[in-house]
User: Fold this.
Amino acid sequence: MQGTNGNGHHDGNGWLLRVRGLTKIYGEPDTTTLESTGPAFNSNICPRSHAIVALNDISFDLYPGEVLGVVGESGSGKSTLVQMLYFDQDPTSGAAHFRAVDEGQTNLFALSNQRKRHARNHLLGMVYQNPRDGLNFGFTAGGNIAEKLLMAGTFHVGRIRERSSALLTRTEVPVGRMDETPAAFSGGMQQRVQISKAIANSPPLVFMDEVTSGLDVSVQAKVLDLIRQLQRELGVSMIVVSHDLSVIRMLTDRTLVLKHGHVVEHGLTDQILQDPQHPYTQLLVSSLL
Amino acid sequence: MVEDVKFRASYNFAFIDESTKKEVRRKILKAVCIPGYQVPYSSPEMPISRGWGTGGLHLTLSLIGPRDVFKIIDQGSDASVNACSLRQFVKRMTGCEVTFDTAAATLIQSRHRVPEEILTDKQILVLQVPQPEVLRGVERYEFKTRQMHAEADYAKIWVSLYEAYVRFGTMMRGSGYPIRVNGRYIATPSPIPRWDVPNLSMAHCLYLFGAGREKRIHCIPPYTKVEPLEFEDVLFHVEAFPGIRCAASGEDNAFLDEIYDDEGTRKFVINDSNFLDKVRSGPRPSQRLFTNPD
Assistant:
């Protein structure tokens, strides 16, 4: 895949995030692993070595202010993709360049642990499907947001509380519940706290991993609406991972369709939904009500 | 005394064998070189259970020489059961002179207190530490806490202070207030009260911390800067005893114990028993007192 140049609406130079050849293999692969897995084999498990190819040679560009959707079924590698970009996991091979780190000159995966942590705390945000992955339930909601602010060096309780209240207000969490633990919150509210935490340091790039999958439909709609509003307000770039095409339709400008660790189709979201080319995408779209 | 000498003859001087002492001393040197860093050590078997001061004893027995004068304190008191037993053990195993007098001791082992009296550059204070990992309360995995120390990733300990402030309106931690040693490692000063924390900074003496059960040694060398963690707008405070004087001596400006007599009357008495004896019988020994910010 050649980035987004083929789509014609970007010149190829203004990218915020450039990912090239990202590959993640679990287990011990042999020389045939990469050629014997993927959509053509209808499996991402190597028949000889039993290594799992979660992602195989993924490349794309993300532009400032853009929302990129990643869609695919369970096990297609979509969560692995954002987890690697958020440094939760190390890739087997591949590179990612981020405009906000060394003007995009350095491969993110080659950074020292300290610099990775710095990038994670200052320049990236992440909202996980399970709030327990993104929030510490031993701390209060305010404390969780404070953690992100403290990581970025705000050592002033007054300013921390001011910023946390503003964020919670913005994400429609009652400020009066700031000093309660998220365990006492509803699922939708937990996601709102996670969103507050993710945008606490105004990062240029935020990842959303199946944010609304555990929520009931009416709450889903509200959270999606909030994400869309925030994205427009802050002009933040996002990578939104979902198995749900309606989430993809509502939030994203462009979409990658993943199957068995391969990108089977990519393009403008509208195009993909209106005129899917790959049989797998056609199946996905036709299964959408 | 004759019995003690006979008893001692069947053991090495200071109980621990020389090669093990050497190992502990090497780890102490490493801890001195990297102030606040927890150095793993062997924590050999002792004739008392781990968790009863073995870490302190390892340090004491590895460092003590025949001419040392030894003092041991338990929660400020020389006379508690734990202090008496360990003092007797060290005396039997070394034949060293023992004392209650803080100023006369060359080697002091303590549990949960730093003496009120200023220690000199001829003295070493060994503290018994139950939990040397300051991050344990916020991170249960050892490999993660090590990584956090290595990368100076201390946001979580700050969140715990923030949370304490939000819940209680003050950064109250009864004991073991987190400190930054020499501008780098965040460490626990062992469960001493906040009152004692300012005395750790730029002190004349060497502070050694031994955790026998957890097998770690850390150290604050003399004249090392030690800062209790504080926010820009919420500052560190020591315990305040406004308008309260010691019921036994009439003095103030010392860490006080709250006690109730048989009638249920509340009283405060100076916790450091040797300091209390001194203020009752003669001139007040020199102290370093911390002034709380407004």
